[in-house]
Amino acid sequence: MNTRKNATQKILSFLQSQEKFLLLTGTYQFQKHVLALTIIFQNYPPPATILFRVNHLDNAISFLSPVLNLRKRPKPGIPIEVDSYSLYVDSMNPKTWWSSPLDVDIAVVYPIDSLDYDSGDNCVQDLIRRKTKKILLVSCNDDVDFGWVEQFNPVHVVFDAEEEKPDYHKKVLEMWKSKPLRGTGIDVSKLPKYARSTPERYLVKIFCRNCKCVRWAKLNAPYPGRTALRNAPMGKYTATCLVCGYVATDNYNWFR
Ligand SMILES: [Zn+2]
User: Fold this and answer.
1) What is the DSSP letter of 97?
2) How many angstroms separate the alpha carbon of residue 254 from the centre of ligand 1?
């Protein structure tokens, strides 16, 4: 069972390890980021710069209030001092990033279900540029394709409500099952007919040399995320034009 105790132990050992990325999912909604932040404030060696990156700045106060006693809405660029920690808050909107420190020790991104393949990749690349030592990617809802996270080889920790609230756990799982998968970064309603029967995870846009235009193509593996695709050696990925069957190998040119 993915209990609080198990999740706590795994997050703690992640903090003490050489690993850089952690993916935290599970049915205990609104508790996962609380657990992660609480463990960080109790165990990460101070002094440290912590960055909390939220989907909308308006949510920051309610997301943080179970952990910290906040009176005012946090502002980007102005740290909240908590003992020997400086806590910065910004959002998943890149326009807020200019205000965040250039060096971050540890970042918590929440909820990552607000990100998709491209915005998720962008967000993590920004944290890497800030030399962030530990990056925790935390979900609220898991009815989303988190395939883009796999390129970072995260330690995956699951925190379910099963032990503490079994009925709630069941309800959340049913709710997720009843909805189509989100977060692939593709607007299905805008896909041309020829691409609709291909599973979204395999779709990528290429410049087809045969059709002489941009076409949707099918990858030979699930879309690994933009950075992984651009950095892959020639030949690892191929993409087949869904109109003419031309097989492309110029993976550094593809996008979604
Ligand atoms: Zn073609």
Assistant:
1) G
2) 14
Q: pLDDT by residue (tens digit) across 174-216?
A: 998 887 677 777 888 889 999 999 988 899 999 999 999 999 9
Rounded to the nearest whole angstrom, what is the distance from the C-alpha of residue 210 to the centroid of ligand 1?
Answer: 5
The residue type found at 230 is R
Cα 81 to averaged position of ligand 1 atoms, centre (Å): 56
For the record, the structure tokens of 199 come out as 């599973």
Q: Where are the domains of the chain?
A: 4-177, 188-253
Distance of CA 135 from the midpoint of ligand 1 (Å): 40
pTM (2 d.p.): 0.83
Dist. CA 244 → ligand 1 center (Å): 4
7: region left, alpha or beta (phi > 0 left; psi from -120 to 50 alpha) = alpha
* Domain spanning 4-177: CATH 3.40.50.300: yes
